[in-house]
C-alpha cells in the first residue's frame, strides 16, 4: 500500500490531547486542504466555525452530551451546511432563488462532510488526532444560537483537533465483500455475522473500555428509539423546508 492508503487505514478517534497547540498557519493549511474536496457543481455549500472562546467550548461540550474533549483539544471546529451564501450569490447574479429544497439540504450536508474528511486526512498526515462530534445535533438550536448561525445554515457536526495523548487501536470495519456488490444489491448476512464475531473479539481485547458486545448489538439504539426526532422540525425552522 502507498503511504496515503496506509494513513487512511490507520484512522482512529482520539479523545485525549496534549497541551501542545496547533499553529494558526497549520490550521489554515488544513482548512485549505478541506476546500480542495469535491463539491457539488462548485457550490461550496459549507462554512466552518472555529470555536476559540473557552466558555463557548465548555457550553458546546455540555450540549453535546458531556464530551469534555471538546474543551480540551487544541482546536474545535463546527462544520455547517451553508445554503445562505450560494443562494444570495445567485440572487446577486439575477436569479429568482428558490430556497428550502430537499436537494439543497443534501448538497450542503454532503459538501460539509466531504470538506471535513479532507481536513481530517490532512490533519492525520501531520500527526494530529481527530474526533468527530455528532452530539452537537443533540441541541442544534442552542448550538446555532451560540454560534449566531443565520437561516439556511445548520451545524452538521463538530471536529476536535489536537496532538494525541493516547494510543488507541484501529476499530475494524465490515469486510469489503459486505460493502462492494457486483452489478446488483445482494444479501450480506453471512458477512455481518462473521463481522460480529470479529467485533466481539476486538472489544474484549482492546486496551481500554473492554466490553462484551457486537456490531449488531451496538446498532440497536439507532432503531429501537427515535434518535434526535427534533431534527426535522429544526431543519425546517432553519429554512431547509425539504420541499
From TrEMBL:
The record's annotation in SUPFAM superfamilies points to: FMN-dependent nitroreductase-like
**InterPro entries documented for this protein:** Flavin_OxRdtase_Frp, Nitroreductase, Nitroreductase-like
**Keyword set, alphabetical order:** Flavoprotein, FMN, NADP, Oxidoreductase
Every copy of the Nitroreductase domain together lies at: 10-163
Q: Does the keyword Transport apply?
A: no
- Leader sequence segment: none
Q: Which PANTHER family match?
A: OXYGEN-INSENSITIVE NADPH NITROREDUCTASE
Under the heading NCBIfam families, the entry gives: PRK10765.1
Family membership: Belongs to the flavin oxidoreductase frp family.
Report the protein name in the record.
Oxygen-insensitive NADPH nitroreductase
Q: Which organism is it from?
A: Chromohalobacter canadensis
